[in-house]
Amino acid sequence: MNNIGFLAILRRDLLLAVRYRGDLANPLIFFFIVIALIPLGLTPDSKELSEIAPGMLWITALLASLLSLDGLFKDDFADGTLEQIIILPQPLYFMVLAKTIVHWVVTGLPLSLLAPVLGLMLSLPETGYLPLMLSLLIGTAILSLIGSVGAALTLPLNKEGILLSLIVIPFYMPVLIFGSNMVVLAVDGLSIASPLAIMGALLALSLLISPYVTSCALRLSIYG
Amino acid sequence: MMFQFENFSDFIYMAGHGQYVWTAYSVSLIIMAFIFVMPLFRKKNIIQKIIKKNH
Amino acid sequence: MASPRWFYQISGRWLPWLSLLTFVSIIIGVIWGLGFAPQDAKQGNSFRIIYIHVPASFLALVGYYIMAISGAIAIIWKIKLADVVMKSAAPIGASLTFIALLTGAVWGKPTWGTYWIWDARITSMLILFFLYLGVIVLQKAYSAQGLSNKAAALLALVGTINIPIIYKSVDWWYTLHQPATIKFTEAPSMHPDMFQPLLIMIIGFYLFYVTALIVSMRAEIIFRERNTSWVKELALNLKDKRPI
Question: Would you call B24 and C208 a contact, using CB atoms and an 8 Å cutoff?
Fold first, then answer.
């Protein structure tokens, strides 16, 4: 495999992410703030909180990942970099994959690592910490891959924001179901093997399909 | 095959389920009629605009 | 062949007959279902809603595939007519999904005592409605900027991969959380007296789908070709007659 394009994009986007560190924290702060809303809006009772914690943590992480999608291709599209990337004699599939991986590294990965702390705040039983992290690690990767399709499809429109969410959320639903179910099973002391296997299968499937569809969508966005 | 109700008011009442059955049927059929008629109006509008432009 | 103009002319000849057939079959189905089909032993007369609910749910799903496949044809082979089908199919499919959800809710009230429950099939139908809404919203956003329809076609196509996954995952979710109080008693086989009107209604809904699609496509074709000479000619010919 000739992967110069893949490595170059990976390096460039990671470097850009490090240069603009300020933006890195935004999804995490969002995650944190929304989790703080839950006891305020529902109940401070730790028993009740622990029951809804897996679902709430998952929904909030999903929204945080969703809100960060907006910038995935936007800047590169605005300054013409994206067009240059598309006409490179390198497979677009791998370059899109590189961009998506960087998106996951700067949003999904920190979200997953932070999640146990927020789980603690929502009285999630300790047995749930590792499965929560594991399900979010795999799950946010799937979310980034699916989300890249939505980000590419809404690229030429001026008012993405909410439109992107409308398009992408229905596709997120299976990931939410299996992800939060994994945590619930772990908390109840049951085996997490089957949701884990399904999440793995979903990850493999979206790794295979998403970058390809995103490439098509990017070409459509630029050449019509 | 025969008519299942004694008389017309029985048919409307449907042993207490009339309100649900008639709501479901009427709203559905209204929506379907709407789907059918809207494009006809749209087409009429476009054609009238073309006629106006070409005069 | 397969040009929008050719389609417009040939469909104009079929349309009156198709409309008549649709109208007749739906009227027969409605009268049969409302008045002549026997009532269900358990659900009584509320069962009659099935004659709208099932055909609508059925075509809501079929309609998504029709939309996605024509979108694929439009993207791959760049056939204009397929793009028109894709554009017109989305609102019709969304309306049928809405009808399925609405009749399901109204049917639920006398049967389970509530308008809405988070049952697997209802939830799947709701997600299908969201998928339709996404496609429509994307179409509207693109056409508002005068751009092509292909992004929405691509979205619809991705949706077809997702529909089986969504259905399976919702089934999984529901079997884990199934409330014990609500049980679905699904008759393994319907009595012929109940099934015959259902068959008529399914045929009627298929005919309705095709007719509504053609009517909507004709308006879309006239809109897209409004600056061509054949449409201008058509408009001027229709000026003295009734423009339908």
Answer: no
Q: Tell whether the model's pLDDT for residue C180 goes beyond 50.
A: no
CB contact under 8 A, A181 and C176: yes
Which residue ranges make up each domain of chain B? 18-53
CA A44 vs CA A50, A122, A159, C60, C238: distances in Å: 10, 9, 38, 43, 71
Q: Is the dihedral of CA C76, C131, C111, C172 positive or negative?
A: positive
C181 has a pLDDT exceeding 50: no
Test A169 with C130 for CB contact under 8 angstroms: yes
Name, in order, each residue with C-beta under 8 angstroms of A90's C-beta and a sequence gap of 6 or more: A2, A4, A5, A6
Chains B and A touch (3+ CB pairs under 8 A): no
Domains in chain C (CATH in brackets) are 16-180+189-238 (1.20.120)
Residue with more model confidence, C120 or A170: A170
Tell me the ipTM for this assembly: 0.90
At B44, list the tokens.
Answer: 């009429």
**CA–CA distances in Å: residue C216 to residues B34, C17, C91:** 12, 16, 10
3-state secondary structure of B6: coil
- CA atoms within 13 A of residue A118's CA, in its CB half-sphere: 31
pTM: 0.91
Q: Is the pLDDT of residue A1 over 70?
A: no
With pLDDT > 90 as the criterion, what percentage of chain C qualifies? 48
pLDDT computed for residue A6 by the predictor: 86
Q: Could you tell me the two tokens for A132?
A: 């929560």
Nearest neighbour of C154 by CB, restricted to A166, A171, A213: A213
Residue C64 in contact with partner chain B when CB distance is under 8 A: no
Report the C-alpha gap between C195 and C243 in whole angstroms. Answer: 41
Each residue's pLDDT tens digit, B11-49: 877 877 888 889 999 999 999 999 999 999 999 999 888
Contacting partners of chain A (3+ CB pairs under 8 A): C
Among residues A196, A94, A80, the alpha carbon closest in space to that of A138 is found at: A196
Closest partner CB to B1 (pick from C36, C53, C218) = C36
* CA–CA dist A186, A207 (Å, integer): 26
Greatest pairwise CA separation for chain A in angstroms: 59
Interface check B33 vs C, CB under 8 A: no
Structurally, how many domains does chain A consist of?
1
Q: Do C56 and B39 touch (CB under 8 A)?
A: no
Cβ pair C141:A174 closer than 8 A: no
Contact call for C147 and A153, based on CB within 8 A: no
Range of the domain at A194: 4-223
Joined tokens for residue C233: 């000619």
